[in-house]
Amino acid sequence: MSSAPIVVHRPSRTGGRRVTVHRNGRNEILGTAFSDHDLVVFLESAGVSDLESVLDQPRWVEWRDGPAHDFGAA
To answer: Would you say the pTM of this structure is higher than 0.85?
Structure first.
């Protein structure tokens, strides 16, 4: 299990990555991001502030099974 509260999961076969956030003791699916913009929108709606400083910090965001900021098909 990740220690980062935000997880950007592996790229799907058709493109995009599922995004989850761990809060209130459970994981919530925020949606499927197809770009950094989508990711930012999801995180803003979840109440995450200062997004520019958290996207590339492993203690906040875990990018699973693919390079960070890559949303292309697997």
So the answer is: yes
